[in-house]
Amino acid sequence: MKILIIEDEKALGQSISDYLQAEAYTCELVADKHSALQRIESFDYDCILLDISLPDGNGLQVLKALRENNKTDGVIIISARDGIEDRIHGLQLGADDYLVKPFHLSELSARIAAVIRRRRFSGTSILEAAGLTVDTAARTVRVGNQPADLTRSEYDLLLYLLTNRNRVVSKHAIAEHLSGDGESLFDNYDFIYAHMKNLKKKLIQAGWTDHIKAVYGMGYKLEAP
């Protein structure tokens, strides 16, 4: 799961990023509105943490840009403004949640998980498709009653394919999703091939019938009824 943190307080932003990465999220951190607008224009995120008070403008303009472009990224406003008018205004603009600073990182993590469940998995932490059962809270995968022991990258890859099932996802999109800011550092997509090969091998060993198809010159598609 990929998180964009828009926070101009450097220490707080880094603290949030470190905590969420330890929770197995992929995080990107920006500190101003201009950089945030560039990111949301180019990439999709499972959840965006949005500070309102940014050095070059109001963070709510980022939220407006998201919704005007019909993007479905989840958004949690994180702000020191605790007035009821600010909360209502943010939610009316399309935010999924509003968390007042200071907050416990564990509460922030719980709220992120709730937003992603609602946005990506119809409100449940259990995803069943293509003969697989994925518990997104426990981060476990089963084929029938047989557990599949996946690495973090393999799990993230599978969840990304399941979230976009029956659609072709490009190798570029997969690389960007798995590696976040590091995507531009790769000269090729060999690491995707390696993760895909290992993922399919482990699932098949657990008894799965392979539903992941390579689409020549484009990417991959997980086919599921």
From TrEMBL:
SUPFAM superfamilies, A to Z: CheY-like
Residue spans binding DNA: 124-224
Pfam families (UniProt xref): Response_reg, Trans_reg_C
Keyword list, A-Z: DNA-binding, Phosphoprotein, Transcription, Transcription regulation, Two-component regulatory system
Domain Response regulatory span(s) in chain numbering: 2-116
Gene3D superfamilies noted in UniProt: 3.40.50.2300, 6.10.250.690, Winged helix-like DNA-binding domain superfamily/Winged helix DNA-binding domain
Stretches of the chain forming a coiled coil according to its record: none
PTM sites of type 4-aspartylphosphate: D51
Record domain OmpR/PhoB-type: where: 124-224
Entry-linked InterPro entries: CheY-like_superfamily (IPR011006), OmpR/PhoB-type_DNA-bd (IPR001867), Sig_transdc_resp-reg_receiver (IPR001789), WalR-like (IPR039420), WH-like_DNA-bd_sf (IPR036388)
Protein name: Response regulator transcription factor
Source species: Chitinophaga caseinilytica
